[in-house]
Amino acid sequence: MAILCPSTAIYHLLFSSLLLFFSCYVSGIPVYGAEEGKDGFHSTPVSSLLPKNKCSTSARGGSQGLPITQKYGPCSGSGHSQPPSPQEIFGRDESRVSFINSKGNQYTSGNLKNHAHNNNLFDEDGNFLVDVAFGTPPQKFKLILDTGSSITWIQCKACVNCLQDSHRYFNWSASSTYSFGSCIPGTVENNYNMTYGDDSTSVGNYGCDTMTLEPSDVFQKFQFGCGRNNKGDFGSGVDGVLGLGQGQLSTVSQTASKFNKVFSYCLPEEDSIGSLLFGEKATSQSSSLKFTSLVNGPGTSGLDESEYYFVKLLDISVGNKRLNIPSSVFASSGTIIDSGTVISRLPQRAYSALKDAFKKAMAKYPLFNGRRKKGDILDTCYNLTGTKDALVPEIVLHFGEGADVRLNEKRVFSGNTSCRCLAFAGTFAGTSNFTIIGSTQQLSLTVLYDIPGRRIGFGAMVAPSET
Ligand SMILES: *[C@@H]1O[C@H](CO)[C@@H](O)[C@H](O)[C@H]1NC(C)=O
Ligand SMILES: *[C@@H]1O[C@H](CO)[C@@H](O)[C@H](O)[C@H]1NC(C)=O
Ligand SMILES: *[C@@H]1O[C@H](CO)[C@@H](O)[C@H](O)[C@H]1NC(C)=O
Ligand SMILES: *[C@@H]1O[C@H](CO)[C@@H](O)[C@H](O)[C@H]1NC(C)=O
Ligand SMILES: *[C@@H]1O[C@H](CO)[C@@H](O)[C@H](O)[C@H]1NC(C)=O
Predict the structure, then answer these.
(1) Phi and psi for 92 in degrees, rounded to 5?
(2) Is the CB of 367 under 6 A from ligand 1?
(3) Mean pLDDT in order along the chain per 10 residues (467 residues)
(4) Ligand 1: distance of its center to the CA of 174 in Å?
(5) Ligand 3 atom nearest 386 alpha carbon
(6) Which CATH superfamily is domain 10-459 in?
(7) Any idea where the domains of the chain sit in the sequence?
(8) Which of 47, 48, 246, 269 could form an S-S bond across to 31 if both were Cys, CB 3.0 to 4.6 Å?
(9) Would you call 415 helix, strand, or coil by DSSP?
């Protein structure tokens, strides 16, 4: 059977003979039919594609860890602002991608050294939120989970420009354990200034205080940014960013004594709740995952110099057929796994091959022929109105060491029933051509980051005999 997020005995009991896809938790009733695996197609009831306005979590499946919600989904509890349009989301996504690529150019032009010590540049936001508390007694905040940032920051008391939509700020006077400035040996800077890809900024000072992830996971003297001048649109109910990159100040580094730089997440669909696990809790999932190596970023000689998490993508399949893309197409600039990019980006050559094969496999469905809006980055869309069950080709991402990540309908498409689009885009010319595996393709999938083991694990197919 297919395992996605935390595999539980319940799945096995209920559905042991079927090949099914699940959302993160038991409460996510399977929406995919038993066609999976049959010639590499999934039969998907089109009715399951309708927008979900209710949080469908009767239970979080007995799972541990920090709950993750989608920023604009019904489970975030912060939905007081209008969700952005797809075009707005894509616009921000493009900003993030060009920002990541501009850093890539810095790597390859040998400016990495400057760059590695430059905390001024950070990326655009992501769509997934977790609650984290700071101070004594703890004050709770909603932070964006970002594997592409190395600094954690929260909005602080007396912000000059405060985040739109956030009603919370950290009041350090109310914390008995707060200290101003840096507290990590070897770091001296007291101020930080982060510019994101879309001109969002957060400027403030560093502070140190107790950080509480869960009641059993409390870290003294955690250094974070105290944002006082925050500009831009980080989105509904967002109070800051949880940096899960590899830098010295990242949450991963600052909790290493307890968690040994291992974490995993399961990014939820809009109407469910995912989870972020650290240390042992993450490691305990290992036996059900398939691993690929973490590799150095281009132009770097060590993992810790790569700001992003690089892996090796080798090829892609559509409906059980390999596209046979020369792996040099991906290898020339590298492949990043990112929680903050929404739509995966492929080098043009790979994207064209994917699109052609996908169109062939979807030939019996009408292409969307409505007007495309400015800012759309997706160009292969179908009008599935009037279709009851769509037979959608499975896309498989073949990573190094045999780690195959299977993408069901939910991870293949983005958009509504009348305009359902292949959720991949080509990287545009003129920048470095990072392949980026974005959050749409990671939905409901356990992704484990094992930095000392130099590997990334994906929830993958378990052989039928094991179920
Ligand atoms: C911050 O906390 C202090 C100490 O508890 C309190 O006196 C002050 O009113 C709080 N400030 C704000 C803006 O909430
Ligand atoms: C923060 O950095 C940006 C970009 O480098 C710069 O334009 C801005 O003036 C800086 N702000 C402060 C307060 O240092
Ligand atoms: C989608 O298809 C339906 C049924 O064929 C049609 O009525 C509708 O106008 C189409 N919508 C768009 C946006 O093309
Ligand atoms: C579906 O998406 C298309 C493209 O973004 C948009 O034009 C259309 O209004 C949407 N339809 C519905 C029913 O939301
Ligand atoms: C990106 O790909 C294009 C087309 O293959 C190529 O011309 C360009 O040199 C590449 N850019 C970088 C920075 O690798």
Answers:
(1) -65, -35
(2) no
(3) 39 35 37 49 80 69 77 75 75 77 59 32 64 97 90 84 72 95 83 69 88 96 87 72 90 96 93 93 92 86 74 95 92 88 92 96 90 80 90 94 91 89 82 84 94 90 32
(4) 6
(5) 4
(6) Acid Proteases (2.40.70.10)
(7) 10-459
(8) 48
(9) strand
